[in-house]
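Example 3.
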Amino acid sequence: QSALTQPPSVSGSPGQSVSISCTGTSSDVGRYNRVSWYQQPPGTAPKLMIYDVTNRPSGVPIRFSGSKSGNTASLTISGLQAEDEADYYCSSYTASDTVVFGGGTSLTVL
Amino acid sequence: QVQLVQSGAEVKKPGASVKVSCKASGYTFTGHYLHWVRQAPGQGLEWMGYIQPNSGGTNFAQKFQGRVTMTRDTSTSTVYMELSRLRSDDTAVYYCARGGLVVVTNIQAPWFDPWGQGALVTVSS
């Protein structure tokens, strides 16, 4: 199972919006609405930010939103804040009853 | 609150085995799958597999089949992940994470929340 494809890095200024893409195949992202997104600041464990493509867990700011079109899912962060600087990972359920992660995207707040 | 607390760092020689524990609290232990995810230094996340705490059933990523064992002790709400025939490229932080649950249908879901603090396993001669 190959990893999902994410851009290595993205950046934005405070207050701007940024989007991170996550491209899979028709056997994972394209087949199931089981895409999740995780935030990982340096030296910490990942934190769930989005599940089932669009859903935010309690406590996650409304600035974080998710979407999907075909084999590509996206995480959008609006009103960027300095505290959003972290690595972001997507994951998807697969047709093999497994989970696959993306390679990760480093977000820099300029 | 829901919490997963893992065992400490380990240093192992190539060819040895390592066993990492993950103690759950704050929820019904048998109600959620427990997953294991690892992260090599400076690298991304890699899903290893899960255990069903109620039955002990497991499902592993193909890459780890034959080398990984996952067990649980329901009396202490603890799961264990043992990786054998260690190689240098197994050096990583190993995380346990609680699987999601669709409450309305009681169906297990493939998102992870929360995560344990991680356990660094170093494989070196």
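The mean pLDDT of chain A is 96. Chain A touches chain B through 25 residues (CB under 8 Å).
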